[in-house]
Amino acid sequence: MDKAFILRQLDTALATCSSLTVLEHIKADFLGKKGCVTELLKQLRALPLDERPLAGQKINELKQVVLERMDSARNALEQMLVADALQRDTIDVSLPGRSVESGSHHPVSLATAKMVAFFTAAGFMVMQGPEIEDDYHNFTALNVPEHHPARAMHDTFYVDSPFDVNLLLRTHTSSVQIRALETQTVPLRVITPGRVYRCDSDLTHTPMFHQLEGLVIDKTSTFADLKGLLLAFMENFFNKRCEIRLRPSYFPFTEPSAEVDVRCVLCDGAGCRVCKHTGWLEVLGCGMVHPSVLETAGIDTDAYSGFAFGLGIDRFAMLAYQIPDLRMMFDNDIRFLRQFS
Ligand SMILES: [Zn+2]
Questions:
Q1: How far is CA 84 from the centre of its chain?
Q2: Residue 247, strand partner residues
Q3: Per DSSP, what are the bridge partners of residue 286?
């Protein structure tokens, strides 16, 4: 191999080299242990002794040229790679930004959070209970014994039970009140937000909906405290002055019991479709806890009394956000849900 041939080979290889790895391979091909220049040096031994110095000198010159060309090729390549990287990483600051899509809270979650914030600030603890409940906690302990007509008012989903107790999907969160009375000591202030189930479905009913139940047991709790608390709650929730009225009602687990109406928050009492032109909205039920409920829980009814209230979170959310159909809450239509972000 003559010098000119080797350099032509080198130039061809360097001209198409596009990475430092390939450059290393080229270097090995020419100057490595089995490289062509190295081979030439090995062949020196075959020459007569007097010819070796001159031939050796020429090979060293060739090696020097190869090294120089490789160095300049390396420099050119490195500059090209840096330029490429700069080109790739260049940011066009005039382009519109890419926004991060964030989800939104469900209106029921928003309403629940607002309620929980109000009641925890008022000293209530938050308690959860099982959604598959037994007959005792859902009915019996709430003063609704078997064959009581109030059981028929709740269209109950019963669940196949492997035990000798009836299991059901809880029809109200009042069951958690009983669990609170069993596990906590009095005085007690507790709210129990959660899902409840009834076999019912139309414009204003869904088989699953959300309730928030509140319970206060204390030596000094009165009906006036109950009314004051509920008024403060409504004004906080609807962000406006509210007027409420209490109508006598019946619940098995409270005595006396009342339905609470609020002056329509949409028309301020003038009359509209939502309040059916009565000017009032029926929003919750409440009452003083029935002594037999307290006695069942082993609480001294001479020393303690209590009040309880229960409301539909979905109904409050519908009023606050002016949602016309309860079923929209659970259709998961993204166009509906996006409005709450
Ligand atoms: Zn109205």
A1: 42
A2: 259
A3: 258, 309
Range of the domain at 55: 3-89
- Are the CB atoms for 127 and 190 separated by under 8 Å? yes
Residue after which a domain boundary falls, among 57, 89, 121:
89
Examine the domain organization and report whether 244 and 282 are in the same domain: yes
Distance from the CA of 155 to the center of ligand 1, in angstroms? 29
Report CA(272)–ligand 1 centroid distance (Å). Answer: 4
Question: Which chain residues have CB less than 5 Å from ligand 1, an ion?
Answer: 264, 266-267, 272, 275
Positive or negative, the CA dihedral 319, 323, 327, 329 is: negative
Q: What is the phi/psi pair of residue 105, to 5°? A: -75, 145
Q: Indicate whether this model's pTM tops 0.70.
A: no
The residue count for the chain: 341
Each residue of 285-311: pLDDT tens digit?
999 999 998 998 889 999 999 999 999
Residue 219: inside a domain, yes or no?
A: yes
Task: Quote the ligand 1 centre to 316 CA distance (angstroms).
Answer: 14
Q: For residue 195, give the nearest of 107, 130, 260 by alpha carbon.
A: 130
